[in-house]
Write a structure and sequence with these properties.
This protein is α/β, with parallel strands linked by helices and 174 residues long. It contains 6 helices and 4 strands.
């Protein structure tokens, strides 16, 4: 069993050189990608594909720890959520991940301005993370599609906070 309160110890003989970066907290943000039920919960639509990894990595409790540490340190916290709307299902060009996500209805919403049925749906945030996300201080970016936040307003939001150091986390943040 993993001791989540233990301090991380660097390897005795690391394979890679130590990074030269030092976090400057006023310039740092925790960015969490897709902290949603469809990606992180046994009730989520993608659990059959990602569930083993979510469990093995102790993902949700570790994200709680990251949120707590970020809030305690006073750094910017931003969320980049993933939603699909009906018009997204008409794409003429789709890759394997898009085809899979569309086929199972992952992150589906009836419309960009429609919150009907949102609460506790697969597109909603994980209940364990809501106290941190819905605190009125966390930046909730506009939705991204498929591969990441480079296409939504995350970069703008971070730039406006003068953030240029990012701690990236989430189920598929790699």
């Amino acid at each position: 069993m993993c001791n989540h309160h233990a301090t991380y110890a660097d390897p005795v003989d690391p394979a890679l050189p130590k990074a030269s970066i030092t976090l400057d907290l006023p310039r740092t943000a925790l960015v969490v990608i897709d902290p949603q039920i469809d990606f992180m919960s046994p009730e989520g639509r993608s659990w059959g594909v990602v569930g083993e990894s979510v469990t093995e990595q102790n993902l949700v409790p570790n994200l709680v720890r990251l949120f707590e540490a970020a809030k305690q340190a006073g750094i910017t916290v931003a969320i980049s959520p993933h939603y699909y709307f009906p018009h997204d299902h008409t794409w003429k060009v789709q890759g394997p991940a898009e085809m899979f996500q569309h086929a199972i209805g992952m992150f589906d919403r009836p419309g960009a301005l429609n919150l009907d049925g949102f609460r506790d749906s697969g597109a909603d945030f994980m209940p364990e993370l809501k106290p941190y996300i819905e605190d009125g201080k966390t930046i909730i970016c506009s939705t991204h599609k498929l591969y990441g936040p480079q296409a939504n307003d995350l970069v703008l939001q971070l730039r406006k906070q003068r953030v240029d150091q990012v701690i990236l986390a989430g189920m598929a943040a790699n």
